[in-house]
Structures are given as structure tokens and as C-alpha cells.
Amino acid sequence: MKFFEGHFDSKLPGAKTSVFAVMTKLANDYKAVNLSQGFPDFPIDKGLIERVNYYMEQGFNQYAPMPGVPELRKAIAKMFKKNHGAEYDFEKEITITAGATQALYTAISAFINDEDEAIIIEPAYDSYAPAVIANGGTVKYVSLKSPDFSINWDEVKRNVTSRTRLIILNTPHNPTGSILKKEDLEHLERFTRGRDILVISDEVYEHLIYDKETHHSASRFNDLALRTLVIGSFGKTFHATGWKTGFVLAPENITSEFRKFHQFVVFASNTPIQHAIADFVADPKNYTGLGKFYQQKRDYFLKAIKKSRFKAVPAKGTYFQLLDYSNISDESEYDFAVKLVKQYGIAAIPVSPFYHNSQNNKVLRFCFAKQESTLDKAAEILCRI
Fold first, then answer.
1. Which of 119, 289, 323, 365 is most buried, judged by most C-beta within 10 A?
2. Are 149 and 178 in contact (CB under 8 A)?
3. What is the pLDDT of residues 168-187, one digit of tens each?
């Protein structure tokens, strides 16, 4: 196709294709065992599929209300009341989104203005910083501390200025699999009190917690919740990432501003899927067993690679496991990840793209949300590298 030879830079001229898309394409091209992009390779609950079909057959195929189907918002309100003791008004404080990434972009777009600053804890999910930059903001980066990937709150404080508008948290944490402790949220609550700082708490893996640990949602802390947008995802909860259905909980004054942007970004998300998920969320048995389910997969994977040369500290949450390859190669994470695909037939995600400066720690992220047969194939490969 011919094109006009003008100058048409976007707001993100330096942005590259997401590492998730790059590694998945590479895995497909080389027919590799794909433990890179975070999605399950096993079927979702047949009952949930049947509920989607039921609502389609019943004619629920047109636009949902802009904030989301009321039944689903009511079910989320009950879930957060039961799990965290948090009170959210389903009409004024809960919004259904087309996935968590849309929720994140909309939240950042709604509140970040030119020259506002956002503090991002890295390694960080790769959509945070571009959304801030696209909206004229500046990113301040704070790195998690090794080896436990905890937050250095003194460093967070040092990065706060009069222009700080937003702090973005993620727990359970992608890509490290770490979780925030109660003391972390209490620290943030005290520190932000009296300041005009908003918080985004990305909690999409909230039900994937292991080793009898607890998910400390920002919604549990009264003062903190007053300034926080809590973001969740049913794609992670119900093994249906392709359905792109998420949600945002925030106080009424924040939600009203969020919805001003939400209506113009996506207006509403998939109607029959919202109705079907509402039915499933209403029964806690459909999500309370996820921690045990995925911990078994984590443990199965770690046991299977025990004789390999990779080193691992078991993930506390998410369905990702970091593996240290420093005993195997001095190559950069990206180069080693590409090598694993091309020479060995297994795909992982390098963690370096989760840092703004492409920091290399010689670790790769592997997704264990897979069938045991897939994990067996992966382990066999990893044990002979």
C-alpha cells in the first residue's frame, strides 16, 4: 500500500511490541512448549460455558449498561464484603471493564495530567509506564529489593514530590510471584494520609495465593481504600483470559471520574459473559479453591525440575515461577530466552523488559498454569539444559 510520506509519530514513538506477543509468536513459529504468555492450556468450567450460551440464547446480546451488568456488580460487592470486609456500593463504586489492562489504562488516563508523576514499583507489568507517558506524565521507578522482592518504602518516599499523583501497586506480583504483607499496606496508608496521591492496586491474581499466606487487598484498609482503585480480572479467576472481563472498585468520587473516561474508551464489556460470571461469582466454591489448585501445579512443576541446573524460590502467588539460570549461562535474559525457544523448544519470558532500564538478573518467568502433560514436557527440556 502506498502512503503519504509525512511525519506521524504516535504518543509512544519509542514503544516496542510487547514481550508477551514476541515470545508467543516465537514459540508458535518454532512449535515450542509455551510457558511464556500467562494463559492456561486447559479447558474452563463447562458450567460457565453453558451459562454464557444460556444468556446468549435468552437474548442478552446487546450493550450492557456502561458501568456493567448490575447482577455482576452486586456479586462483586458481596465477594469483597465476604473476603475483605470491604463495603462497596454496586451502583456507584464498581465498574466492569473489558479486562484489567483496559481498566489500568482508563484509570491512568483519567487522573494523570501533564507533568504529573507516577511511582511504579519494578519489575512492573509492561502497560503501566506507557499509559502514564501517553497521558503526559512522568514515571518514577522504584525497584523491589532482592532476594525476596519486597518494597523499599524509604526509596518510595525519596521519590515523592509535590507532583506525585499516583502510586501503582501489584499484589500478587507479576512477574516475581511475591506478595505484599499487611505491614506494607499499613505503611502506604500512613504515608499517603493527608497527601493528594491516588493508588492503583492491581490485584488480578488475588485468589492465587500459596503456602497459607493471605491476600491483603487495599480494600481492607479503610483510609487507603478511600484513595485507591482496586483492579481485578475474571480472566485469571476463571481460566478465561480471552474473555477480557475485569472490574474496578473505588470510592464514588473516584469512580465517577473513572467512568467519564471508561464510557469513551470501551463504553461496556461483553454482555452475556458478564451475566454468566455473575452466576459463578455468587457461589464462592467457584473461586475459593484456586489457591490450592494452582499451588499443586506450582509444586508439581518445581518437583519436576528439581534435578535441573535452574534455581528457584517458590512463588507466593500468581501462576508464574521465576527460575535463575546463572549457573547455566552468562547471556542476557532476552538472548537466553530466545535461545531456549530456538535450540531447546521451550518458551519463557525474560524479566528484563519489566524494568525501564532492561535490568538483567539472569532470571526467566515460566507460567505453570498448564496441564501436567505440558509441565512434564517442559521439565524434561529444562532438566537437560
1. 365
2. yes
3. 999 999 999 999 999 999 99
pLDDT of 156 higher than 70: yes
Q: What are the sequence ranges of the domains in the chain?
A: 19-44+288-383, 46-286
Q: For the residues of 297-364, what is the DSSP string, one character each?
A: HHHHHHHHTTTSS-B----SBSSEEEEE-TTT--S-HHHHHHHIIIIISEE-EESGGGSTT----SEE
Domain 46-286 has CATH 3.40.640.10: yes
Strands 228-233 and 246-249: antiparallel
In this prediction, residues 17-45 reach a mean pLDDT of: 92
Quick one: CA dihedral 174, 175, 181, 185, positive or negative?
negative
Instruction: Give pLDDT, residue 10.
Output: 86
27 within 8 A of 34, measured Cβ to Cβ:
yes
Count the neighbouring beta carbons within 10 Å of the beta carbon of residue 290.
19
- The model carries a pTM of 0.95
For 88-100, how does the pLDDT look when each residue is reduced to its tens digit (9 = 90+)? 999 999 999 999 9
Matching residue, cell 519463557: 348
Average pLDDT over residues 307-312: 97
Cα torsion 113, 117, 120, 124: sign: positive
Helix ranges, the chain (H): 19-29, 46-57, 70-84, 100-111, 128-134, 153-159, 182-192, 222-225, 234-237, 252-265, 271-281, 290-304, 333-339, 372-383
Amino acid identity at 152 = N
- Judged by DSSP in three states, 201 sits in strand
Q: Encode pLDDT of 37-63 as tens digits.
A: 888 999 999 999 999 999 999 999 999
Grid coordinates representing 259 are 467512568
Q: What is the amino acid identity at position 92?
A: K
Quote the crossing angle between the two packed helices 271-281 and 70-84, to the nearest 10°. Answer: 30
Query: Over 70: is that where the pLDDT of 3 sits?
Result: no
Grid cell in block for residue 62:
446487546
Q: Residues, the chain, total?
A: 385
CATH superfamily of 19-44+288-383: Aspartate Aminotransferase, domain 1 (3.90.1150.10)
Nearest to 206 by CA among 179, 166, 243: 179
Q: Which residues contact 91 (CB under 8 A, 6 or more apart)?
A: 67, 70, 73
